[in-house]
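Schema walk-through. Below, the input block comes first and the output block second. Nothing else is stored per chain. Lengths vary across the set, and this one has 200 residues.
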Amino acid sequence: MEADVADNETLLGVSAVYLFGRELSDLLLRGDVYQPLMGNPLGANGFLRGQLSTDDATLARIYAFSFEGTFVELSRPAIFVVHGSGLNPDDPPPRNVDGDIEYDRLSRSPGSSARTGLGSQIGALARDMKVWIYEKDDISMRLDAQTGSLEQILLAAEASTDPRGMASGGLSRSGGALSRSGGVMSRSGGFIPRRSGDGD
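--- output ---
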């Protein structure tokens, strides 16, 4: 659940995770398709189902996060389930008694630590960046989107003979000469088949 943003520092702040990103405008998360589970089957805690089925659940591309006073940019932005449209990580601009913006204070003051989780901030976030604040134990979902030709994102990733490939490489999932469950190169034995000897 999204943590409360307040001016006061509380004990809960030590476990807060601040997600910085932008809500996706072209994907709609339909929480109404997640029906409540019937009965209480073992292991069905429903935490993720609960996060996805709320009315304000949405998807956002997250570029960075902060935790325990450290700001970390993701090596590649990822899509996360978030709730609501996010908060502005910057405080409202400081104004004097006449209502004019105090630009000298604005230029040297980062956003509130309650909105960023940071004691100091070098540089500035993009103008349209939002922040979502969660507890570190909250359940969520991460989606890593890839683009490219089918040869790159499907064939090379799934049918490569390179053992360092993304998936099983040349080891097919269902069978074949180099299957996971048998064949010439079995799961348990490199080039040595499970059964050996001339008398077999």
